[in-house]
Amino acid sequence: MNLETIAKLAGVSRSTVSRVINNSPNVSDEARDRVQIVLTQTNFQPNIAARSLAAGHTQVIGLVIPATISRLFSDPFFPLLIQGVSSACNSRDHSVMLWLAEPEYERRMIRQILYNGIIDGVIISSAIINDPLVDALQERNIPFVMVGEPRAAQHINFIDVDNDAGAQRAVMHLARLGYKRIATITCALNTEVGLARLAGYRQALYLSGLQEESALIYEGDFSTESGYQGAKRLLPIKPDAIFVASDPMTQGTYRALAESGIRIPEDIAIVGFDDLPFSAHLTPPLTTVRQPVINMGSVAVETLIDAIEHPERPVRHVRLPTELVIRSSCGLSLHSQIKK
Amino acid sequence: MNLETIAKLAGVSRSTVSRVINNSPNVSDEARDRVQIVLTQTNFQPNIAARSLAAGHTQVIGLVIPATISRLFSDPFFPLLIQGVSSACNSRDHSVMLWLAEPEYERRMIRQILYNGIIDGVIISSAIINDPLVDALQERNIPFVMVGEPRAAQHINFIDVDNDAGAQRAVMHLARLGYKRIATITCALNTEVGLARLAGYRQALYLSGLQEESALIYEGDFSTESGYQGAKRLLPIKPDAIFVASDPMTQGTYRALAESGIRIPEDIAIVGFDDLPFSAHLTPPLTTVRQPVINMGSVAVETLIDAIEHPERPVRHVRLPTELVIRSSCGLSLHSQIKK
DNA sequence: CTGAAAGCGCTTACAG
DNA sequence: CTGAAAGCGCTTACAG
Q1: In the beta sheet, which residues pair with residue B270?
Q2: Average pLDDT of span A59-78
């Protein structure tokens, strides 16, 4: 079943069939109708490989996620992102090819991604700083967009959230509620997110006239385990609130507090960042900064497709809004007052 | 950069280059060496689309996961599986194309999967019963393997774990420790896993001379929430142990018990099924049946590639072993005794 | 063992 | 608006 077959059935040439499939305007209504009918009757789907070869584009995009294996499993961020990308591709009639990679991927994988000749562009999520893939992509002029603002962003399409402002917002919330010794468990500080959220924390302390204290800052690494360790380390110096810079770590923090018999929010307040599906189901439900992850995936796809179809358009930096979701882990909030 | 270029550089024909790339035995050592050198020097990667068109295969496989969105996020099973598939593909020099779908996918997606002409075969995970994709695949004779035994499995390649035996093992463990009123929170019972694990539970009760009691069986749906609801529902009838048929539900169960002030394992024992990364980090660490998810993904890939390359070989049913991992949620176990 | 050539299923100037 | 034809980059009988 190929163009030839359809052409014969519709009584036109291969060229015409190709034109109606690709929505070319240069087809008479009559011809278009005849072809359309055969198309739907036969359930015809053009061969992507052939199209790729002839047209130079495939309607398939690559999604590469260079995250450590363990983070991939424990952080719902990734399934969420994949879902956003997948569904947007779907509705735009594209397909997605997936590469999961340890942060230091091998040259072989990069080569595969670059030269397989079957991909119109790529989305990179959570790249490391100075990702070699990024250089290669730029050099070969392959369209790509990053999820998460990269270090040198001027000529790179990216989608992100304002991590700095979001973090600041979360910590200001704490400060306004009257907390004085606000600690933080950061994300890995060799990532841009990690840095940005820490900067937001500092800003907020500054704006609130609170003293920064290095003992109150614990460097985590996104993992639940580091949230646990962080809490254990912080407790002896008695913070009255902790800003945990990524929700998965929050689970470890909750556990550490429970073990020490410290109650949330009575004895200590917790704010998170992400608002993943589980965050609302912690005990107590977590007050946290919401990041629209699925939406980030979709917007990344839209941006990529746009960059593929209009290479002349300028680079795009999309910054999606963040939102503080108040639940009951900070006490004193409207929500928890109602509960009492 | 294409075969032609390489051929020129190596002083041979296009055909010869193609042969060395594809490991054809019909090449002189001398020619092979010359080509090989140019190949590595130029970092050449053949165009998949062209290969596909010419050879009829692409070295790319499709992975389709028809799970509800919410399950996709909350159940680490999926990232784990994707990881297994991805890494096995990688080491076999294949790529993976991903389709996430709500269980009732549209005809359009099925068509895309079937006819895109770029996929050598597909892996389907967690298919629903009577999945239309499966029928279509069979009809068109496209190689595929399922992760999770399907209802009518005779002519279908699948990878699974012995869910029945695993569940039985878990419940026998409880029975041997002396628990008498053993309840269960099942997986969705419109899935094969759900049915199989329930069957294992029943078997174990029977073998232990325990009375089955319908009030002790609560139908969950894999979600944490259902684990919570299940526990709430079960508590009033005072079970002394619960077999929770999938670890994500276990988190809800733990929460419900904590809210009611019921201690694990002192007041009630819990066994799970899956052994996902978080299972070891619950408080107390969960005793559960380990399922080698990543490995299942890899074996699925191996099986698929084998089926693609050797269509004449018989259908394969792979059943990976399960293992009871004893931690401290059932009390009385070696592990918890040591801790005391 | 090796090369010239046909062909995979499309797209897209080009001529009409 | 439409069709004949060239061409995308490979693979693979076929002949030697």
Answers
A1: B242
A2: 87
Of A212, A47, A77, A74, which is closest to residue A147 (Cα–Cα)?
Answer: A77
Candidates B74, B100, B115; nearest CB to A82 = B100
Does A25 contact strand C, using a CB cutoff of 7 Å? Answer: no
Q: With contact defined as beta carbons under 8 Å apart, do B63 and B95 qualify?
A: no
0.85 surpassed by pTM = yes
Q: What are the backbone dihedrals phi and psi of residue A316, each rounded to the nearest 5 degrees, phi first?
A: -120, 135
Asked if A42 has any chain B CB less than 8 Å from its own CB, the reply is: no
**Which of B63, B97, B259 is facing A283, going by the closest CB pair?**
B259
Neighbours of A117 (CB within 10 A): 19
Q: B68: buried, middle or exposed (CB in 10 Å: 19+, 13-18, 0-12)?
A: middle
Q: Which domains does chain B have, with CATH numbers?
A: 3-46 (1.10.260.40), 60-161+293-320 (3.40.50.2300), 163-292+324-339 (3.40.50.2300)
For chain B, strand residue ranges (E) read 60-65, 95-100, 121-125, 144-147, 157-161, 182-186, 217-219, 241-244, 269-274, 287-290, 317-320, 323-325
For residue range B218-242, list pLDDT tens digits in order.
999 999 899 999 999 999 999 999 9
The DSSP code for B332 is S
What's the rounded Cα separation, in Å, for the pair B83 and B131? 24
B25: which residues sit within 8 A by CB, 6+ positions away?
none
Place of tokens 């593909």: B89
What kind and span of H or E run contains A214? none
